[in-house]
Structure formats: structure tokens, C-alpha cells
Amino acid sequence: MRLKNYLLASTALVALSFMAACTEEDPIANGDGTENTDGNDENNGGNSEETNDNVIVWPADTIVKLTGHYTVPEGKSLVIKEGAQIIVSSDGVGANHAPIEFTVNGNLYCEGTAEKPILFSVPESERTNENIFAGLWGGIVASATCEEMLIDHTIIEYTGGQVIEGSPAASAEIYTAGDDAYPQITTNNINGRYVITNSILRNGWSDGIYLMGGNAIIANNIFAANGYDGAEAVNVKAGCVVDVADNVMFSPNTNGLKLSSSGQSEERGMAKIQAYNNTIINAGWRRDGEKGGCVYVEKNALANVFNNLMVNCKFRAMTPSFDIPNNVDEGYNDQSVIDYNYYASGTQKSEVVFTEESGVAYSWEGYAYAHENYNEGVVDAHSVITKTAEECATNDPKFVNFPINDVALTDYVYDEAWDFQVEAGSPVLTGAYDGNDAALAPYFGTEGLSVNGQTYTSPKVEARFGAYGAK
């Protein structure tokens, strides 16, 4: 992860008075740093429902207040039912106020619904725009012993606390104290099975999802405001096989997708990613320099990136070191297909322009810019790329409700009224990849992934650009 070595000293934290911090001796029973209440927020003495020695259930509509680090132990499973709210204290733990971490050494199953999503958040009074990048807690960390995780219809927000001495992730050597900040979700088991779907991951200092290992389906999610001074919506490393499809990624600091085989070894195999039918908006404008902008593929990752819709992003898809093919340490994997994407631009100028670097002020300028990491003639050889102000109108995706020419390029507050479906006749409905090349098929589109006894399959590849078709 990118170096993040300072605390948000200016963030005002509201003091909360909850029960005693959890203990490792009894990490999932009442009195462990959780306070279980009913929907009226009145302590009822405990709503945890233990179905057997290895499964704990937090029932529907339960409110669980965390005042200390929480651990699902190895060999045990926690099931969180629809409508449950996990409210995390921003006070932290101990004298150094280590951000509260939700550690999964066993299995976690978040079974929300569209009508009753599960919520991981901070107290309501702290859910403000001013706190979007405050990093108020540590996020969900699935360790090397986590075999399965389901995140379905779940909202995770206000994460990104700094990893410091005493943080569980530092003690477990997952992250480095003083260098890293918590993503909203971390995975670290190369044999793990992870399904993250129909969820919202927003308002975090660091990455939305940081995959250091595992087989994963990441589909039908909304990512918004991921990363303060770096970070991505989805960040993949070696030891992963992943399908990323049908997601909306709004205003990631650097990229919607960073796909890297960093850490590749005999044990941790090459990162393999199929990324298709995603919509990425406003990526890269909050990041200085010439990094970022929508998609970044590096260090021998086998990444097929196609049928994606990039809107008002700072730069096009980048493949650094593409002149060093198939090099484990740094090169571009020349078996990757990064093509048949659609780059749309509005006409607004960024209010932040790094003139000493690229000087790019408009999306179409970034798409046309002679970037050293553009693999011209190979990457996006068949993509639709808006390169002039005149082409902005011609290539307008015609969203049902998103003012492509009005939303500031550095905006990161997501408007739930936006609708990224497109109007009939939109140009993004034609020209996308519609073949049957086996190399571009989803990894988990047929046999799927089995999680908690249920098989989940990746979305099929749609012959359109972006996450949604016509309304």
C-alpha cells in the first residue's frame, strides 16, 4: 500500500460511553466490547444467538456497539442478519487510541437485503461530509485463516484509521504500523473464497477493497470517495483470482482498479483479474502527479479489462513498464487484454491543475495526453476515446440522471439520486466486445464460488460499456 504515515490530528472525535472493550479470551460473547440492543436502541441484555459451538448469529435489526477490537476466531463463523447495525466507536482502543478493527480469523457472512441492508458505521452524529476522510475506524480485516466471507447488501463507511503500534493488523504483520491505513475490506488468504456484492463501500481514507489473496467475486457494488491522498476502489495483489463486474466507482483518489501481481512467488501465484462492465467516474483528479485516472495494471498481473465505461477520469488505462513484458518484478503481462473500453468526458475544467506536471485540466485532455504509461496501439486499440472538446457531446453516454458536464471533477460526495442507467439510443450500448473468447470469460461465471453452502456466480459479460444498460 502507499505510504500513509501521519494521523489526522485535526479531526474532532466525539467521546462515546459504551461497555468495556472486548477481550481475546471471549471475543464473540456479550461483554466483549459489543453492546447488543434492539431496534429501539435499548440494552436488552444480549441479542446474540449461538446456534452451535461454532456459529454466532447477530439477529435482524440488532444494533451492536463496538468499543474495542472485535475478532471472529479461527474455526468459528459470525452470521449478521438483515438490518443489523454495527456502530463503531471512534475513540479507539488503549492509551494511543488505536482505531477499532473488525478482524475475521474465521468466517463472516453478512446477509443483508435490499430492503434492510447491514450497516458498519460510526455514530450518526459523526456521519458528516467533514468526516468522509477522517478514518474513524479500522475496517474489516480477513486474515490468512479466513476461509470464507460474504458481504451482501452491506454498507461500510468512515473507515481508514491509521495502523499504529498495538493495532491487531500490525501485530499480525498484515499491515505496517506507521506506514498503512485500513481499507474498508482486506483479504489475505490465497485459498479463501470471498463474495462482495450489492453493497456500498464509501467514505474511507484508504482503499475500498484490498485483496492480498483469495478467489473473489466483486459485483454490483457502489464505491464512493475511496482514498484521501492515494488509494483505489479495488486494489488487487498476487495470490488472487478475481472477477470485478457491474460496479460503479465514483471519485476514487487514484484509480477505480489497481491490478498488480506485486508479491508474486511460487506460493502466491500471479494475480488474475477479469474486470468488465464497470462504470468509473471522476477517478484520479484528487491525486497529484501523473498517476491514477481509472485503471492501472502492473507487475505481471494477467488482467483483462474490457467493456468498462470511464467518465470524467484524469487519464486512460495505464500499463507501466509495458516495454518489459512478462517480468514478475515490474513488467506488463502481454497476455492481458485491455481494450474495448469507452472514455467519456464532460466539458468542465478541474479546479485543481498540476501545471508543473501534466497540466491536464479537462478529462479529454488527459485522454489525449501523451502519457509515458499509455501503451498506444495495444491497450485500448479498439476503445472509444474522447480526445477533443468537440467529441464530448458526440460521446456523451446519456445517463438517465448524472450531469456529466456539471459535477466538478474533484467532487467526491455521492448523490443517491444519480442514475447511471442510460437512455435508449446511448452510444455505450453498441460497439462493446461481444465475442466468446474463453480467455475473457469470467473465472467464476459457470462453476461459481461456494460460500456458506451457497454457490455464487459472476455476472455474465454484457455487450455494452459500463455497469448498466438502458432503463
TrEMBL record:
<feature type="compositionally biased region" description="Low complexity">
    <location>
        <begin position="30"/>
        <end position="49"/>
    </location>
</feature>
<protein>
    <recommendedName>
        <fullName>Right-handed parallel beta-helix repeat-containing protein</fullName>
    </recommendedName>
</protein>
<dbReference type="InterPro" id="IPR011050">
    <property type="entry name" value="Pectin_lyase_fold/virulence"/>
</dbReference>
<feature type="signal peptide">
    <location>
        <begin position="1"/>
        <end position="20"/>
    </location>
</feature>
<feature type="region of interest" description="Disordered">
    <location>
        <begin position="27"/>
        <end position="52"/>
    </location>
</feature>
<keyword id="KW-0732">Signal</keyword>
